[in-house]
Amino acid sequence: MGIWKTVIGVMNKAVMPIRRNGLFFFFMYVLGLLVSYLELPQHKPMAEVYDNLWLELFFDLYIVCLILSFFPQKVRPWLRGCFAFIAYAVTLIDLFCWVKFQATLNPAMLLLALETNGREAGEFLNSYFNADVLFSEVGGVLIVALLHLVCGLFWTKVRNFWTKKIANLSFFSPHKYFIINAFSVGLSGILIWSAVISYGNKQEMVEMFGKKSIGEVEHELTTKHCAEFYLPLYRLAFSIFSNALAAQQIDRLQEAKDKVQVDGVAKKTENIVLIIGESMGRHHSQQYGYFMPTTPRQVAHEKSGLLTPFSDVVSMWNLTSFVFKNIFSLHVVGQAGDWCDYPMFPQLFRKAGYHVSFITNQFLPQAKSAVYDFSGGFFLNDAALSASMFDTRNTRLHQLDEGLLKDYDTTLAKQNKAHNLIIFHLMGQHVSYKLRYPKAQRHFTSDDYEEKRADLSLKERKMLAHYDNATLYNDSIVDQIIQRFANKEAIVIYMPDHGEECYEGQRGFICRNHSAEIDYDLAHYEFEIPFWIYCSKQYVNNHPEIYARIKQVKDKRFMTDALPHLLLDIAGIRSKYYHPQYDLLSDEYDEMRPRILKNKTDYDKVRKSYFSKKEQGAEKQTTTSKQ
Prior knowledge:
- This protein is an alpha/beta fold and 627 residues long.
- The chain is 53% helix and 8% strand.
- It contains 25 helices and 15 strands.
- It has helices spanning 2-14, 16-20, 22-38, 53-68, 76-101, 107-114, 118-128, 131-134, 137-153, 155-167, 176-208, 214-221, 232-257, 296-303, 320-328, 345-351, 371-381, 383-389, 402-412, 458-483, 520-526, 537-542, 544-553, 563-571, 603-626, and strands at 264-265, 271-277, 307-310, 313-314, 355-360, 392-393, 420-425, 490-496, 501-502, 510-511, 531-535, 558-559, 573-574, 596-597, 601-602.
- Helix 3 (22-38) runs parallel beside helix 5 (76-101).
- The longest helix is centred in the first third of the chain and has 33 residues, at 176-208.
- The protein is elongated, with a radius of gyration of 30 Å.
- The chain starts with a helix and ends with a helix.
């Protein structure tokens, strides 16, 4: 009996923070549940709130109440008021963003807000804050806040009134301590359960806030069990943290920018065009042996002799943002320092007198940017860095990549100079595949795969058809870019950021697998990419030595982190940042440089090991069959 009293006493003390801050706990709990359910996407009827919402919210609020209980009783109401005010304010902002942009608080949105001046902020409020907002989901939070305020003002009187009423109930008096104890036991049970349930996510949050760069944050988000920032306050904290990490790298990039030097320009090419595709694996290119005619126009250019495909090119990452940092920076994998400690290659082009245009269908500042786009675009969208890299840029995103061609034709092409570097960054075959090509241009259907991909279900064959249709559409976009420079002195380089999986072999999934371990299948499907160089007839006539060299090196090993050094050579730019051992066209090119994927796995060792084991298996099978 004594042990039971001790246990009950401990439980009563454990739940005391909730009892002392009951009204605050109740309304904060309602607020957390309300915003979570209000922000469920209406166009996704199967969408659900965070799995552990009810229990983890209980645990989180208990911790807040526990902290409050350490302060004197006179101070506590003021602290509760401050916390509640912040919670309601952040929730209203978060919900407002959801109503207007279908996006909750995120790093990109916070960055846009921080870069907005007073006039722009006033215009924004005049445009978006109106009666419609008050009658939207935002109004529901305002009602909860008002109820909380009213109850808070009269809480003491209400509590005393009901305490007396309950105390006078004939049922309550003889069972008073039993009811209180039962209440404590129930709350204690919920508290213990919620603590156990919340532990994993809290551990993940601690790990997330321990990351040293925005790239590490993004990579953590690709893992299966990453932190769930399920409340607006958490999302705000994560956004502040992400922007702080990005700012650190911006500072280092600014330092590198100020040190940019060009020692001379040996020769100039009139037009250098770089096309960066999206999610295009070599294994889905007709040009590289795919069984469907997905790249007929590129094949035609190859047959003309002007387009040279390279046979052994890999990307260093299977995440767009990481790829962009590596291909824009003059840093290559294996060099000292980090990517942000080196200049960006467009800065050298501008310094050398080239007019640089950047036409992107992904990396423009916008409220709905996911962390991945924020991570890949923050250095491209910083005002000072952007001005140092680009003379002209497009200003809007498009559903389809043909919109970029219109942007170029109507505005950017008219601003070209005698010597130009023009970078097209396509949406390509980014998921969702069916959104990446016009319905009117659908060519492949699920029926086309019944024989050669009989292992796939009807749904999977439809998905495969969407991907190949997107690849065929991408082929048309790339071809149209080539056509715009076919009658000029121009060299066009095409490379996607990384590969993509669409039910390859027996792997049974689409998109990419961000596993920490990279085996050959993963490297083959997600890191091996198509890479080619097209030279216009005029370019071939004016630069026959480069054209001949391209033909000579087409089968050399290459990783795209070294792309800037190749571009500097083509442009004739000489600088201390240029290293011929990384330049694919140079006689000093180091073909045996380790191609390290994700900063950890040697691609060539993985490939060699795979084929070595395959050959051993074949020999063993042959020996067994002879016996």
